[in-house]
Amino acid sequence: MFSDAHLHLNPVKGLGAERVGEKLAREGFWFAGLVGLPPYHYGLDKPTLESFEKAINILASQARALRDKGIKVKTMAGFHPAEVDEYNKMGLTIREVYDLAERVLKLIESKIREGVIDGIGEVGRQHYGTSYARISVAESIMIRALELARDLDVVVHLHLDQSGWPTCHLLSKITELVGVKRKLVLVHHASKHTAQPCVEYGLPISVPVKQEIPEIIRLPGLILVESDYIDDNERPGVSSYPWEIARVFTRLVKTGVIEEGVAGRVLVDNIVEYYGVEPP
Ligand SMILES: [Zn+2]
Ligand SMILES: [Zn+2]
């Protein structure tokens, strides 16, 4: 029984949910945490609210396609920190970028209230060098998103810089100030270096399958595993494929590196706990 806590699917530029879902069902996946992509990944190049609404509709229809294959799905939509840079480069002022993000978060709020999507993601901070202005705006958007997660009691996936303890310490402080339950706040794509302190602060983490899985999943926390599959035919191999989760875990259990119980806790129990889904 396998799961992927955080992946993206793109029916416009990639394989899409039809094909990926078929393969996942065949490989024994029971759950997928499906995260929306920035609109321009779907060919929606104008940074407008309409593009975001269309992108959310694509996300919801991709989730339906996965569910048709018998996979449980939770969907998250957000405003990726890379979008801050992208729209600013496209000509929006930094203030306009923030205003757009606020409107997008309002849209996300109404889509969650309508039951079209389930949570928020990704929001956060750039993991590469950029301007202070862009980082500040990305962080302001993240704080708004955390407030929304608090008010709606929904999960939120954070894309952060993976700087180890400082990343987790700052996030821990922010969650306290905002008053959001930390069990909702997932640090996605957590590196080994960042995983340990986040777990110490009681923050859930999702570990990319290409990382040192055996070491990290033994930590005593709410730990999930993800492919962060980007599903872009023009950039094959830039991310892991979701089915690599099945291969890696099968190998680790077979060779005795991890016990079956540890795999079950990460791939089933922790998903049930984090996402509040019924177990398979
Ligand atoms: Zn990310
Ligand atoms: Zn992602």
What does this protein look like?
This protein has 280 residues and is of the alpha/beta class. The chain is built from 10 helices and 8 strands. The protein has one domain: Metal-dependent hydrolases (TIM Barrel, Alpha-Beta Barrel). The strands form 2 sheets. It has a 6-stranded parallel sheet, with helices on both faces. Helix 3 packs across helix 5 and helix 4 packs parallel to helix 5. One zinc ion binds next to loops.
Outline the secondary-structure elements.
Layout lengths: L1 E6 L8 H12 L1 E7 L13 H19 L4 E6 L3 H10 L3 H20 L5 E6 L7 H21 L3 E4 L5 H14 L6 E4 L3 H9 L4 E4 L4 H5 L5 E4 L16 H12 L5 H16 L5
Parallel strand pairs: 1-2, 2-3, 3-4, 4-5, 5-6, 7-8
Instruction: List SSEs in N-to-C order.
Output: EHEHEHHEHEHEHEHEHH
Give every kind of bound small molecule, once each.
zinc ion
Distance between the termini: 8 Å
Helix content: 40-55%
Write down how many β-strands occur, each being a DSSP E stretch of 2 or more residues. 8
- Unreliable residue stretches: none
Largest sheet report = 6 strands, parallel
What's the CATH H-level superfamily name?
Metal-dependent hydrolases
What is the SS-derived class? alpha/beta
Average pLDDT, rounded to a whole number, is 97
CATH topology: TIM Barrel
Figure out the total of helices. 10
- Strands across the major sheet, in which order? 1-2-3-4-5-6
* Shape, per Cα inertia axes: globular
- Name of the level-1 CATH class: Alpha Beta
Would you identify the CATH architecture? Answer: Alpha-Beta Barrel
Relative strand content: 5-15%
